[in-house]
Amino acid sequence: MLKLLSTFRVIAFLEGVSYILLLFIATPVKYLGDDPQYVKMLGMPHGLLFIAYVVIAVLISKDMKWSTRTLWVVLIAAVIPFGTFYIDKKYLKNVHA
Questions:
Q1: pTM to 2 decimals?
Q2: Helix, strand or coil, per DSSP, at residue 86
Q3: What residues of the chain score a pLDDT lower than 70?
Q4: What pLDDT score was predicted for residue 34?
Q5: Treating both helix axes as pointing N-terminal to C-terminal, what angle do 37-61 and 2-21 enclose, rounded to 10 degrees?
Q6: 23, 36 in Cβ contact below 8 A?
Q7: 3-state secondary structure of 80
Q8: Which pLDDT belongs to residue 2?
């Protein structure tokens, strides 16, 4: 479980960074600068990281003894900017297997 948790923390960090880059850099450049290049570059990796985040969250939820409510909070955090960083700090950082 510890290895999957470590993987989840890395995926959560990368997903959060890719989401912030997509929202606050790539999208404004696309619409204000008429250049969709950055959205195309970041879109696919972010989508894959998002899917990996959701799948791994569901897989580790039993081992982490998360309630259904906690699992939903973890999943919803993936669609809120900076949400995955909050999840890491609140639910993942101090876990010892």
A1: 0.91
A2: helix
A3: 96-97
A4: 94
A5: 150
A6: no
A7: coil
A8: 75
CA distance 39 to 67: 35
Distance CA(14)–CA(32), nearest Å, equals 26
The CA distance from 44 to 23, in Å, is 14
Identify the pLDDT of residue 93: 83
Query: What CA–CA distance (Å, rounded) separates 16 from 91?
Result: 15
Q: How many CB atoms lie within 10 A of CB 43?
A: 14
Cα–Cα distance measured from residue 15 to residue 47, given in angstroms and rounded to the nearest whole number: 9
**Distance of alpha carbon 31 from alpha carbon 53, whole angstroms:** 28
Please state, in angstroms and rounded to a whole number, the distance separating the CA atoms of residues 28 and 82: 18
Token look-up 């510890």 returns 2
Q: Which amino acid is at 67?
A: S
